[in-house]
Amino acid sequence: MILKGNRHLVLGRAGMDLYADPPGTQIPDATRFVAHLGGSAANIAVALARHEAKAALLTRLSDDAVGRFCLAQLDHYGIDRTHVRMTAADTRTSLAVVETRLENCQSVIYRNNAADFALTPEDVAQADFTGYDSLIITGTALAQDPSRSATMAALTKAKAAGLVNIMDIDFRPYSWASTAEARDINLTAARLCDIVVGNDVEFGHLAGTEAEGLSTARQLVAEGAKIAVYKRGELGAVTLTPTKEFTTGIYRTNALKPTGAGDAFMGGFLTALAQGRSPREATLNGAANAAMVVARVGCAPAMPTTEDLDHFLATHPDP
Predict the structure, then answer these.
(1) Domain residue extents for the chain
(2) Quick one: pLDDT at residue 235?
(3) Among 21, 48, 147, 148, which is 20 to 30 Å from 123 by CA?
């Protein structure tokens, strides 16, 4: 088994998502918004918790009303927040203003002096990693210090503790000083990981050119990664292991929006691996989880339960 259990420590961003309501409304026309938990790391933690995993978040939130909203939401979803620290008043928890629209979906993200970037190596040093089977990081956490140094320290500490290191590349260009810096740092982190998941653009970012993205995924596996998942949007995914490489399709669904699919994929994928299922089964589990989320409003509240996912898989043929 690649994962010995379903206990995960997720490092990275949590925030507030404001969705223009009702679904289909464009932000300039909206007079009402619905608030949900957001942020890539928090969404992954929710996706895991919905499948009865133990999920804990390692991050920082601003010590204000928005930060406390996120704390309440973590409690609502059953996310362990033992390792969540509150920052000084001059930082801000991330805020995203989003539309539930498939075409021309607008998302405005406020990341000014982001609280999660204030995560420190000392925060990591104080966290007990022994109760977890994996450490999951998102590339966003690497974009600035001290969060960058904290993330690299966490990868080193997790490896020493025998955890499986997992990376969602999650490349957000607006968070980085330069593309070249982003490539170097993300590639360094990816080489410390046992599982690396990203889309074709993100692997292309690691390679320096999108045309070489799949080759970079293959190289990471050749260098020691146990699995790399190279997602291709509507074309499905290429999953690579040291002994095989295979392609899978996507589950067709009546999508409402494009957001949340990557976080949902990670939750379904890792849950299947923790159950001892094959990489192919895990990839399809992740794809089904993603298909369900894009057909629902929000990200965190859209994450399906195990019962939801089992019913979906039973009523939809393998793509």
Answers:
(1) 7-315
(2) 93
(3) 48
The pLDDT > 70 percentage for the chain reads 100
Residue 118 and residue 61: Cα distance in Å, rounded?
9
CA distance 148 to 116: 10
pLDDT tens for each residue of 232-263: 999 999 999 999 999 999 998 999 999 999 99
User: Tokens for 32?
Assistant: 């009402």
Burial class (CB in 10 A: 0-12, 13-18, 19+), 75: exposed
Reference 249, options 240, 241, 239, 259; nearest CA is 239
Cis? peptide before 173, omega within 30° of 0: no
| Cis check: omega of the bond before 279, within 30 degrees of 0 | no
In sequence order, the 6+-apart residues with CB closer than 8 A to the CB of 314 are none
Place of tokens 């930060």: 67
The pairing of strands 107-110 and 195-199 is unpaired
Please give the CATH superfamily to which domain 7-315 belongs.
Ribokinase (3.40.1190.20)
The answer to whether the CB of 13 falls within 8 A of the CB of 138 is yes
Q: How far, rounded to the nearest angstrom, does the alpha carbon of residue 55 sit from its chain's CA centroid?
A: 13
The 10s digit of each residue's pLDDT in 35-79 is 999 999 999 999 999 999 999 999 999 999 999 999 999 999 999
- Residue 195's φ and ψ, nearest 5 degrees, are -130, 130
Which amino acid would we find at residue 32? R
Whether 191 and 167 have beta carbons less than 8 Å apart is answered as no
What does the alpha-carbon distance between residue 217 and residue 187 come to, in Å, rounded to a whole number? 11
Q: How much is the pTM?
A: 0.97
